[in-house]
Specification:
The structure is a homodimer. Chain A contains six helices and two strands; from the N terminus they run H-H-H-H-E-E-H-H. Chain A is mostly helical and about 120 residues long. In chain A, helix 1 runs antiparallel to helix 4 and helix 1 packs across helix 5. The longest helix of chain A is centred in the C-terminal third of the chain and has 19 residues. Chains A and B meet through helix 1, helix 2, helix 5 and helix 6 of A and helix 1, helix 2, helix 5 and helix 6 of B. Chain A binds a DNA duplex (30 and 30 nucleotides) through helix 4.
DNA sequence: GCTATATTTAACCACATAGTTATTTAACTT
DNA sequence: AAGTTAAATAACTATGTGGTTAAATATAGC
């Protein structure tokens, strides 16, 4: 089965090495050797990570002599942002509940705090 | 190695079945059977997906008689939102460039369109 | 054409993932 | 106690992932 784009993007982001590569690319394009330099890992391993990022549409690769400079392509990240945005009210709601709880702890003197079902 | 929380979250979200389960849980808590119903998949398979979601902190499981109602826990999704937000300027920049390009195509008569650095 | 540099590909290994069916555990019902 | 329902676990299979080392490819420079 060909995995959907969103799955491919989440999957690509589920690895700290790949996220670090993306972070590096926010500073500008870089060669494979430059990208590999910070990692205690062979070059082919990094090359594989780049292939995953490329297939997810998160990087593009140019050609300049024997170098293949990589550049960040943030399009799929917008998809992630849009997807997760659907859930915003749920985590804000959680914080609201925590907030309510803390307020209740502080205001012990008050009756009972708000109830959901009276 | 114990994978970091962000990796675990991205990894959990990289599967369309699990994302569908989370979507279902936005409507309220549900039993394992209820969650499994839409999928052409055995119950143990769904049970495994739930375990992945639970270990990523994306759901919590209660107890009510022989049912284990699942509820959405959106906390880790905020981490995703915060992480991806770092990259917003990059996808907006891409759209800006596309926008500039379209404007340039339309306004052929005008001098050169607005420059970033004057 | 030869050699050095940059990168990819091939072949392999260990382990994780996503699914299956069969069995087991837990709690309710009668 | 026996049976039913809900869910998890066990045991297994197939495939994917992340890493390795060694070999192949592509380009630049002499």
């Amino acid at each position: 089965m060909t995995p959907d784009r969103l799955s491919a993007t989440f999957s690509a982001l589920a690895d700290p090495t790949r996220r670090a590569i993306l972070a590096r690319l926010t500073l500008g394009e870089a060669s494979v050797n430059e990208l590999a330099e910070p990692f205690d890992m062979s070059l082919p391993a990094v090359s594989k990570h780049l292939k995953v990022l490329e297939r997810a549409g998160l990087i593009a690769r140019g050609r300049a002599a024997q170098w293949r400079p990589c550049t960040l392509q943030a399009g799929p990240l917008k998809d992630i942002a849009d997807w997760v945005e659907q859930y915003r009210r749920f985590w804000e709601q959680s914080f609201d509940r925590l907030d309510d709880y803390l307020k209740e702890l502080q205001g012990k003197g008050k009756k009972h705090g708000p109830k959901k079902q009276p």
